Amino acid sequence: MRQAFWAIAAAAMLGGPAIAADAPDSSRIALVIGNSAYRNVPALTNPANDARGVAATLKGLGFTLVGDGAETDLDKPALEKAIRSFGEALKSGGVGLFYYAGHGLQVHGENYLVPVDANPTKEADIDFELVDANLVLRQMEEANAKLNIVILDACRNNPFGGTGTRAIASGLAQMKAPEGTIISYATQPGNVASDGGGEHSPFATAIMSTLGMPNLDVLAAFNQIGVKVKKDTGDSQQPWVANSPIDGEFYFATGPAAASPGQAVTAAAPAADDPEIVFWKSIAKSTNPADYQAYLDTYPNGKFASLAKVRANPATATQAMAARQITTTPATTTSGVPVQTAAATPPAHPTPAPTTTAPTTTAPTTSTTPPPTTASTPKTSDAKEMRDYGVAPTTQISATDHGATPTSIPSGKVILTEALVDLRAHGMPVVVDAIPSVLEHQTIQGAVWMPFAGLAATTPDEATTRLGQVLDHMTKKDHTKPLVFFCSRVTCWAGYNAALRAIQLGYRNVYWYRGGLAAWNEAGQPMGKPVLTIREHPVAR
What is the DSSP letter of 3? Predict the structure, then answer.
């Protein structure tokens, strides 16, 4: 488990103007470090992934990164060198941000960062094996930057507990930092923060999803991050903040906003591009697949997600293109109805080719009817997306989450696999897995799992209230945003119920993917863990 700890040293000059999000790249310097692969103590799962995600977010917000990206798994010499390079890169009057994820310790009231090669066996080894976190603050203070931000997302437990280093105390100590300082813990002192079950900790996820929100000043952004962490962990992780007054304002991202009467001109930050667009522009010409994976980690359903998936995995993209070249004429059934084959699979979501077809990059063979591999020819009746059970559509939430379903939904649209693939290729919809299970499962790649969304109605209908809060948060109350809801198969009502709730909430582009996971899996489309799981807890508006 990791104690997530923020120290934001805001050395703002007296009477200074707001620091806008579109400040030149050279004035925004960040060093992002994630240590996971420890050699002498248990390794950590998330820090390296968290660092890559945070680095990509900051890059999209105009920060110049020391090392041009996240620095991961650093030993002591490399960690000290990176901090020194960071200090040399900082600009007087600019913005400096340091992020560290990994093991962290408190010894005699001082905090230490733990390099991956650290192995102290006694207290006297600490100065030689670990790196004092105050080293970062001294570098920032020396540079005389306008605003300094230090983020320590570090381990609370003592990984060296059995080695005779008894001076190591649990948790991290409050740090003494330059004037104008915010120190924000991601959980209360003495408590333990969650690493989470996905690729990122709840805290890192909140950082990545919040920093790009326009017109949030630095304190409001940290408060929003704290609210999100608290909600996403079911109140088990409560952020804790201490700060001194900060003179001036800083915005990670800005957008158009009406000025209040008498507002000083310097307090309003100029409008900036959408952070996602800025991020994409920063990597659009890159040949490094890791850059595109970082984009997908930050914006799994983003505007450029389909292209990013191709560039993030060029090998499977080539394989998918080869599969498309197998046939030049659509195969047909004996009744003359076209059959969707591997050739029709868009390259936006490349997957390994089915073993039955064994496509290669050689010239097409004489066969124009390779075995169909998608939902057009399901192997089981449950995967037949439009099987008619004679059930009439209804506007009432079903009292059950299983059983035969209608073939249409009032005021909504039924979407089939091929159409859903096309819709996702444009990076447009929010895709919601409404399977009412308590067990983790593989789902449609990029889907958000909301097991409460399709439950039977109660009085009052708490599921509808919760879903409304979540969707407002995810869509920023844009009721034209395409939403896709699904369950396990055509005999599951949960996806229908969830779609009905969204329609009742006023969303106008609601799709029910009737075939669900069974049809998606039969079609050979990409599966994965949910990008986000939202159980019984509402998300703050």
Answer: E
Please state the CATH superfamily assignment of the domain spanning residues 381-533 in this structure.
Rhodanese-like domain (3.40.250.10)
Torsion sign (Cα): 482, 483, 486, 492: negative
Nearest Cα residue to 375 out of 204, 237, 520, 500: 520
Tokens 């998936």 found at: 309
What torsion, rounded to 10 degrees, do the Cα atoms 240, 244, 247, 248 define? -10
Give the type of residue at 252. F
Rounded to whole angstroms, the Cα distance separating 13 from 8 reads 15
**Nearest alpha carbon to residue 228 among 208, 250, 254:** 208
Partners of residue 298 on adjacent β-strands: none
Instruction: Tell me how far apart the 2 most distant CA atoms of the chain are, in Å.
Output: 82
Q: Exposed e or buried b for every residue in 83-116, given b needs 16+ CB within 10 A?
A: beebbebbbeebbbbbbbbbbbbbbeebbbbbbb
Tens-digit pLDDT profile for residues 415-466:
999 889 888 877 678 999 999 876 778 899 889 999 999 988 777 788 899 8
The domain limits of the chain are 2-260, 381-533
User: For residue 284, which of 24, 28, 59 has the smallest C-alpha distance?
Assistant: 59
User: Model confidence over 190-231: pLDDT tens digits?
Assistant: 566 666 667 788 878 888 988 888 888 887 887 888 888 888
Rounded Cα gap, residues 140 and 27, in angstroms: 13
Buried b (16+ CB within 10 A) or exposed e, 520-537: bbbbbbbeebbbbbbeeb
Candidates 3.60.10.10, 3.40.710.10, 3.40.50.1460, 3.30.413.10; CATH matching 2-260: 3.40.50.1460
Rounded CA separation 121/136 (Å): 25
- For the record, the structure tokens of 287 come out as 């040949």
313-322 pLDDT, tens digit each: 755 544 443 4
In terms of Cβ atoms closer than 10 Å to its own Cβ (0-12, 13-18, 19+), residue 15 is exposed
User: Under 8 Å CB-to-CB from 261, ≥6 apart: which residues?
Assistant: none
